[in-house]
Amino acid sequence: MVLPKWQRKLPQDKTVTAQTALASIKNGCRVFLGTGCGEPQHLIHAMMADMSFQDIMIYQMLSHTLAQYVDAPTFARRFSLKLFFISEPMRKAAFEGKIDYLPTYLSQIPKLFDSRQIGLDVALIQVSPPDHFGFCSLGVSVDITRSAIENAKMIIAQVNPRMPRTWGDSLVHMDKVDFFIPHEEPLVTYQPNLQDDQVTRRIGHFISQLVRDGDTLQIGFGMLPNAILPYLAGKKDLGLHTQLITDAMLPLFKQQVVTNKQKSLLPRRVVASLCMGTEELYRFVDDNPFFYFRSSEFVSDPLVIARNDNLVSISSALEVDLTGQVCSDSLGYRFFSGIGDQVDFLRGAAMSKGGFSIVALPSTAKNGEVSRIVSHLSEGAGVATTRGDVNFVVTEYGYAELQGKGIYQRVMELAQIAHPKFRAQLINAAKKHHYIFADQLPPLEQDLIFLEKYDWRIDLKNGRTAFIRPLYPSDEFDYRNFFYSLKEETIYRRFFYKMRLFSHEVVQEQWAEVDYHDNMSLIGRVQNEGHSEVIAIGSYSLDKDGYAEVAFVVHDDYQGQGIARHMLEYLEQIAKENSFIGFVATVMGDNHAMLAVFSKRYPHAAVHPTPTGEIVVTMPFVP
What we know:
By secondary structure, the chain is an alpha/beta fold.
């Protein structure tokens, strides 16, 4: 029998059958298995088939093949399975207590191996055939496998010609391996059922508003982070520094949306730790220098992550409470996934120059019967991410910005993005907990999806980008900060008197009138390194005879940028949709800039000076 060329490269004295190699594993051994789609299926099947194995302790991060065996009556008597992350095929077994979950930050797992706190006797891995220098590749599974093979007393490697050769820190020399088992088989594939529904599209829309051209992204484990990737297709020169590469990223690679050109750490290369997908993805990463695979203690180290300027972390959650605590690894007492690297990347993003983090989740679960924005986490839920780590939270109803904000403001912002039917009860619960004022108005209980079309982007003359959207009750603090940042003259031109207080009560009175139809307010914001600030407000309110009174105030630092002109255009569009026939405005006589904005858009406007020095401008819309 003539052996294939790749198999002839293996050292004959180490090349054996799976049964021969596994015979070296003694009862009581601690065995590591390669991760996810890189796991050595042939070796696992052979180990499960050998009934002589007893009291074997197995460590693995993402498990797939063992799901076929874990329900067998004899499995628990023969093996003790310890997982750092509970994959979907293993959730049932986790619910039934058949496996042991080890809650550990992904970046810290290699240190547990290095320190022998978790000792490893044997590592079962899968590698590519060796090159002419004798180096095999760990391929799609470098992650914690790199540390496992450096610390295990014995290494048994399944050699599979279908395993891609990947660039980076993935190479293992033949001298390091004790036994080689040549066996060709398809790699485990991973193709989650990515939903393309209205909820996902709306979440993707809001995330696309936050992500900027040139940002470096981390995409967390789970269906939702991958499902929103198509909504980033309009971005330019994105980078990737992420634990996991999936098929959902392929279009962004092929369309050159992800170029890595503006990365500050390892530019022009995707930095990752493992790859889980289809054969198409495996062939795409095979011997492709565009990808740079490193171990988890590098990829998920917050200090390494922070070396990427403008690092944006995108991850998911099971529920978020009104103070910003995030549960991502358990549903009550049932473990559902794992801590993974969410906290690593949230903290790395917080330290990154210009970086920030996004936690995304649908507003409800169980077909809309349960809110995922909750007054308190479910009994037994684990706090994977503390309230101090969270920056943006996104649902299909918008995004809440929590970093640097108090409990009152967090409650208002998170209630605003909860499902409309749960908002009032969330506000009532917050009042009961004394999180907010007793007189606080709740967000409207109607679905304000129609407001999504009232989102605009303006490229300013100073090179900044302003985002225009409707004013929400959750904007109270930013609204007040904006007011107090204005010069006295600017306030006087807007309110016609020296207004010195802009209290909670004043804001409540204004919002009590906002219905987004007869009374509408838009705010302009600019993003500044993970947070945004209000720079302009434009409003109209019901006047008489089909007219609405319109008014603007633009921050002194942003006057002359054309913001009022754009906001006037947008407010007119909204007013027309609500059957108004024109605007009326009262302007100080010396406010030449505002008068010019009105006269340019409405050259046939009627101008009426008043005895007190103001000018009333009546501006009928052109049909």
